[in-house]
Amino acid sequence: MKFTAAQIAGILEGEVVGNPEAEVFKLAKIEEGTEGSLTFLANPKYVNFIYTTAATITIVNNDFVPENELTTTLIKVEDAYQSFSKLLEYYNQVKLMKSGIEQPSVISENVTYGEHLYLGSFSYVGKNVTIGNNVKIYPNCFIGDNVTIGDNCIFFAGVKIYSETVIGSNCNFHSGCVVGSDGFGFAPTEDGTFSKIPQIGNVIIEDDVEVGANTTIDRATLGTTLIRKGVKLDNHIQVAHNVEIGENTVIAAQTGIAGSTKIGSNCMIGGQVGIAGHITIGNNVRVQAQSGVGKNVPDGEVLQGSPSFGYSDYSKSYVHFRNLPKIVADLEELKKNNNTN
Description:
Elements: E1 3-4, H1 5-12, E2 15-17, E3 23-24, E4 26-27, E5 37-40, E6 57-61, E7 73-77, H2 80-95, E8 100-101, E9 106-107, E10 112-113, E11 118-119, E12 124-125, E13 130-131, E14 136-137, E15 142-143, E16 148-149, E17 154-155, E18 160-161, E19 166-167, E20 172-173, E21 178-181, E22 186-188, E23 194-196, E24 202-205, E25 210-211, E26 216-218, E27 224-227, E28 232-233, E29 238-239, E30 244-245, E31 250-251, E32 256-257, E33 262-263, E34 268-269, E35 274-275, E36 280-281, E37 286-287, E38 292-293, E39 302-305, E40 308-310, H3 311-322, H4 324-340
Parallel strand pairs: 4-5, 5-6, 6-7, 8-11, 9-12, 10-13, 11-14, 12-15, 13-16, 14-17, 15-18, 16-19, 17-20, 18-21, 19-24, 20-25, 21-26, 24-27, 25-28, 26-29, 27-30, 28-31, 29-32, 30-33, 31-34, 32-35, 33-36, 34-37, 35-38, 37-39
Antiparallel strand pairs: 1-3, 2-7, 22-23, 39-40
Pathway: Bacterial outer membrane biogenesis; LPS lipid A biosynthesis
Catalytic activity: a UDP-3-O-[(3R)-3-hydroxyacyl]-alpha-D-glucosamine + a (3R)-hydroxyacyl-[ACP] = a UDP-2-N,3-O-bis[(3R)-3-hydroxyacyl]-alpha-D-glucosamine + holo-[ACP] + H(+)
Family: Belongs to the transferase hexapeptide repeat family. LpxD subfamily.
């Protein structure tokens, strides 16, 4: 896709300084700009690059006044950073603007769907599925029986949504993620083997949720695994059966949450965190990367360590831990001096 400076200025409500017919078809950092690329200048420490960049168009703040000759066409806006972000969002919407049902694909009995559905090839939609407006389902996706999907959702290639799952509006699911797979439920038997416990619950995902690539969300044993509005899950996260994650909580990659744990709203959980089952984590909790959480956590706590404890106490203790060989040597010296006296 190509855009002229005039078209971009129209989207951003900006002013063109230079050639309004200058065309771009790609994005670049200002220091890496090449012919045909669009870039922006927001941070003053990068200002020298605007005189050497080969980018065709550069977005700048209204108050920018060049001190040397420029080869790039400028688009002046109120806030260059926000305008560039707006343009990225617009570009992404245009790129994802697909509709129609590709073949081969399967739509089973009693499926209803809204306007502007895109169903990619080799995708399967099960029985009694309800799909809202402007939903994009990319190739090789599986949507199981009795699934409900709201408006403006995107399922990138290879997403698997098991039966009975309920999904709100404005949700994104990245490639390889699985929603509604069986929870890890097994009971020991007398002969030393394990018998599978049927997992007959479901998953409910509310509006504005994003699920990263290869993340798995297990269905409940009974009842519901619940992902509240605005939750953002990174790649490679495991959410076990009957977990509840509160509104606007964000969780980084490779975190594992064991069954029946409840996490509050507005929490921030770092990468590779392990969270035990059947505990409650309060609202506004921060958990540093690679921590292990094994007990209930009250609102507003900041945790680190494995097992985790208060971040301030952890930091102080870690200083002593690093000095442990010297501390031991000093103690040995004191013991030696006491013995000689």
